[in-house]
From TrEMBL:
PROSITE patterns xref list: PROTEIN_KINASE_DOM, PROTEIN_KINASE_ST
Lineage: Eukaryota, Viridiplantae, Streptophyta, Embryophyta, Tracheophyta
Protein name (Swiss-Prot/TrEMBL): Protein kinase domain-containing protein
InterPro entries on file: Kinase-like_dom_sf, Prot_kinase_dom, Ser/Thr_kinase_AS
Family annotation (Gene3D superfamilies): Phosphorylase Kinase, domain 1 (3.30.200.20), Transferase(Phosphotransferase) domain 1 (1.10.510.10)
Segments forming domain Protein kinase: 31-316
Domain of life: Eukaryota
Molecular function terms, GO-annotated: ATP binding; protein kinase activity
Length: 479
């Protein structure tokens, strides 16, 4: 095991250090009970005080079964060592030590071994999230709770999208809060690395926390990124409600009381515009939490989609806007648009057409556009490029990239008209998408069915909507 760790460390630019057992004994006062920060099923966490006054957390793992427990130790070290993210607890060092001692046992002297497996983390002063959720006087008002939801989502996004790591034990007890109530995901003891291209892992052992484990894991021993998404959904609902009493299949209607409770609490301290904005955030967090808890893992959103929805909710423009006839519209109009845009991103093609017809009609009289929609347009250009590369095994660099830009320019020049939805129904858009794919692939004939282009078509639909919203200059956007 030592050689595996050393090999891993050789390829890291900024990595946790291998720490000496005597150093850890010194900073924890020989693992004194007075230094204990918390207990867990896997070990004890001690407070360590360095000579310079810096405080760290030292986790001493239980070692009952060397092979099994060493695997958990390796998981924590290897999966956490190269992650530097504000919403993931930072691993600063580790210690793997074995002491041998001759001792008298059952009437004879034997050579006994004691195994030490220790991890040194940054110290997070406010402890775990589970200690705060149910107490309204804990200081977790809606703004703080919303930031915690966003931070946990960002941390999980780093694991799934950046590292292909499944956490597999997400729960409030494994989310720590720093002095500013910024959340940090901790405890990678059960984490697994999923190979590129794989969608799930089969396991023989059931490990985790009841109430946060996905149904397919409990019933069929299947692990995937969707397993973490389910746990995330439970956490989001628990953060919003302060309780964990909502089973799989709970409908939105059952959260009306929760919504009204938050509305009453916020009315005391918010002006009208801020109140509507934050009430909309409450509603969207409930909705995304329930989607994450869908019994069917295929219907759960990816962490990328969850982050997009959460950020879209955060960036809702709180100012009223003025139409060309001089009338004022409240921020709630933008909240309605945001929901319809979610339908476009996640819904069916039929829903997309209906939503586009409605939204495009509403947009005609606007002079001011929310900043978050403009940002979304830029992000969707990148998403579209990545989707084309992945779906059609293309590298959009050099000439191919210019062909994509030219094709998109042509597409938007043709379809920047009022009869966009009608053109979609007539199939004109599908024909043009096929032509775009031919241009991109640099082939005379592209051998693909239109069904294979459906995801690309949906991305184009969404991107067109945002361009219509922003009234952007198409040429300047892509050149």
């Amino acid at each position: 095991m030592e050689s595996v760790l050393e090999k891993k460390l050789q390829h890291q630019s900024s990595t946790p250090k291998k720490l000496d057992i005597n150093y850890l004994r010194s900073i924890t006062k020989n693992f004194s009970e007075d230094q204990i920060l918390g207990h867990g099923g896997c070990g004890i966490v001690y407070k360590g005080e360095r000579e310079n006054g810096e405080v760290v957390a030292v986790k001493k793992l239980k070692v009952d079964n060397v092979g099994k427990d060493d695997k958990q130790f390796m998981n924590e070290v290897i999966h956490a060592m190269d992650i530097c993210h504000p919403n993931i607890v930072r691993l600063e060092g580790y210690c793997c030590h074995t002491e041998k001692e001759v001792t008298f046992h059952d009437g004879s002297f034997v050579l006994a071994e004691e195994f030490y497996r220790l991890l040194c983390f940054e110290y997070i002063p406010n402890g775990s999230l589970d200690k705060y959720l149910s107490d309204e006087s804990s200081g977790l008002d809606w703004h703080v709770r919303y930031n915690i939801i966003e931070g946990v989502c960002n941390g999980l996004h780093c694991l799934h999208e950046g590292r292909n790591i499944l956490h597999l034990d997400l729960k409030p007890a494994n989310i720590l809060l720093d002095e500013n109530k910024i959340p940090k995901i901790a405890d990678f003891g059960l984490s697994r690395l999923i190979d590129e291209g794989k969608t799930h892992i089969h396991t023989k052992n059931l490990a985790g926390t009841c109430g946060y484990m996905a149904p397919e894991y409990i019933e069929r021993y299947v692990l995937s990124k969707e397993s973490d998404i389910y746990s995330l959904g439970v956490i989001i609902i628990e953060i919003v409600t302060g309780e964990r009493k909502y089973p799989v299949g709970t409908s939105n209607e059952e959260f009306v009381e929760v919504y009204e409770k938050w509305r009453r609490r916020l009315q005391a301290t918010r002006n009208k515009t801020s109140l509507e904005e934050e009430c909309q955030q409450v509603n969207q967090c409930i909705e995304v939490g329930l989607k994450c808890m869908d019994n069917d893992p295929k219907r759960r959103p990816s962490i990328r989609e969850v982050v997009q929805i959460i950020k879209r909710s955060e960036n809702i423009d709180s100012c009223s806007v003025t139409t060309r006839d001089g009338k004022h519209r409240e921020e709630s109009v933008y909240s309605e648009w945001s929901e319809k845009i979610n339908i476009l991103v996640l819904g069916s093609s039929k829903q997309s057409i209906e939503a586009m017809e409605t939204i495009c009609h509403e947009l005609k009289g606007l002079t001011d556009v929310p900043e978050y929609i403009i940002k979304d347009a830029d992000r969707l250009v990148l998403d579209l490029t990545m989707m084309v590369e992945k779906s059609f095994n293309l590298t959009l660099a050099g000439a191919s990239s210019m062909q994509l830009k030219h094709a998109l320019n042509t597409l938007f020049q043709i379809f920047k008209v009022r009869h966009l939805a009608q053109a979609m129904k007539e199939g004109t858009l599908e024909k043009l998408v096929t032509q775009i794919l031919i241009w991109i692939s640099s082939e005379t004939v592209l051998k693909t069915e239109l069904d294979d282009a459906r995801e690309l078509l949906k991305a184009l639909n969404v991107l067109m909507l945002h361009i219509l919203v922003c009234e952007l200059n198409i040429h300047d956007m892509f050149v």
